[in-house]
Amino acid sequence: MKKILIGVVILAVVAALVGVNVKRAKNRGVEVQVAAIESRDLVEKISGSGRVEARRSVDITSSVVGKVLELAVEEGDRVETGDLILRIDPGDREAAVEQTRARLARAKAREDLARAERKQADLRLERTRGLMKENLASDADLEDAETNADIARANLGAAQGDVRDAQAALEYAEYELSRTVIRAEIPGVVVRLAVEEGENVLAGDLYNSGSSIVTIADLSVMEAHVLVDETEVVKLEPGQAAEVIVDAFPDDPIPGKVVEVGNSAYNAGSLGSQEAKDFRVRVRLDEVPKNLRPGLSARAEIVAAERKGVPAVPIEALVVRDPEKEAAAAARKGSARRAHRSTGGDESSKEIEGVFLDDGGHAKFAPVTVGIAGEKYFEVLSGLSLGDRVVRGPFEALRRLESGESLRVKKDSTRRSRKSESSPPKESPDTEENASSGEDAGTGQ
Question: What is d(CA 313, CA 388) in angstroms, rounded to the nearest whole number?
Fold first, then answer.
């Protein structure tokens, strides 16, 4: 009897040890979070930062040097085309106008005299020809009369040339005088005024733009001019919808539309430079808030692409692996389960993009081809099917995970996955449930 009791005790101890070992073996799996592949609505947005600008604005500069005698506007004033902005001291330009007017008058007087002399010379020539017919004048008299007529004709031409020259000089002098009066070139609002009465302004020339006096902008149509990275600008084109967030009004996004995508780099470096390049994109605002001003900092979110009801994989689930190494790892760990479809990648390459599947409690690497990127999900083009369970985190576990390793799925992750499988989302991933799920999962590549 005693031997039987001892045998029972030994068997109980062995069973307990076996149970503990089995439990430990189960607990040795990597603790992960999983998510089921579901249909989602995705929106790919491209961001750019810049500032608000008026669609049409004009910087008025001075064409003459002088002191400001009269300033007729202030910043914020509304002006129409032709309205007076300021007057510059005309200086000697008024005297130049009077001088050229007097010169023109003298030239016209000489022209009148030359015309009278030509008339007299023509009459004398006609009388001489009449006398020649009656043999009352010699050939020499006729030659003298013809010569005098030619001289009078030439003098009249020279006098007429002097009149034209004086007229042109007067027009130029009057033009120079008119440039001392600065007027609005477009209707709009004075958004910048750089001078005061009594200050001197500089004239612009071929090498110097001169003093900027005033900036007038048409604030009825406003745009956001933003810079977009060269890797993303290729996805943009005129007509795409956008949302502009002005830093001064962060809670009131303004709808807009892309009207122009730059064809040349805004900050292009030297040829062959590896420096990142940006391209300017113009987004026209559909509405203009009351206090919107040119120069305010802004950010544009441009909708580059949209997909409705497509399979989507969490961004944090995507990893880059060598498929050959993953296959070897699975073989080492004795994974004999059937291979998952792998149409999404070329397994002959060294490193490809893919995900780890929860394949019966073990990790299985599957190449994936993705399309557009939403805020938290990528579109799946090939490699996965609806309902497939992918490992989405945590980051540390996903970073070290290999094919064939045992998985322990977190209970809260399983509940979320089952809930989403029972009622797949039909809207964009920007919902409370998706946002909280993404925060719990973290990110991993």
Answer: 10
Q: What is the DSSP string of 132-183?
A: HHTT-S-HHHHHHHHHHHHHHHHHHHHHHHHHHHHHHHHHHHHHHHHTTEEE
Q: In 3-state terms, what secondary structure has residue 252? A: coil
Distance of alpha carbon 389 from alpha carbon 38, whole angstroms: 10
Neighbours of 11 (CB within 10 A): 10
CA angle 444, 409, 401 (to 5 degrees): 40
End-to-end CA distance of the chain: 64
117-172: per-residue pLDDT in tens? 999 999 998 998 888 888 888 888 888 889 999 999 999 999 999 999 999 999 99
- pTM comes to 0.63
CB 220 within 8 A of CB 255: no
The three-state DSSP-derived secondary structure of 75-99 is CCCEECCCCEEEEECCCCHHHHHHH
d(CA 69, CA 86): 8
Q: Which residue in 286, 270, 268 sits closest to 278, CA to CA?
A: 268
How many other CB atoms sit within 10 Å of the CB of residue 205? 9
| 374: Cα separation from own chain's centroid | 21
Nearest residue to 159 via CA among 121, 118, 122: 118
Tell me the Cα Rg of the chain: 44
Instruction: State how far the alpha carbon of 334 is from the alpha carbons of 330, 331, 361, in Å.
Output: 6, 5, 13
Pairing of the two strands 78-79 and 188-193: antiparallel
Cβ-contact 194, 38 below 8 angstroms: no
Per the CB < 8 A criterion, the answer to whether 367 and 340 are in contact is no
